[in-house]
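Reagents: none. Just compute today. IS66 Orf2 family protein.
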Amino acid sequence: MSLIVQEKFKLDPFSRSLFVFCNKKRDKIKVLEWDTTGFWLHYKRLEKDVFQWPEVTDNTHVEVDERAFRWLLDGLSIRERHAHKTIEERQII
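Predicted 3D structure written out:
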């Protein structure tokens, strides 16, 4: 999987990024993670339903933030329209 990240997507598999792959049926995902001593491979298979995997038209990668990644794992679309907006830190007086 690290070779796919490096050769096909021209990305660094040794970065602190997570690389997520989904099968055609969209009921299984694999997450590749480097932790400075080796790779972790996380695997999740849904018993029912499918992941709301983003449509990719140019056969490349999609960058998402941690919030969208958690939505994906929870079965939501990464472009969820009904979620609460992120609130930036501010000082309360």
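The longest strand covers residues 28-34.
Action item: order primers for follow-up constructs.
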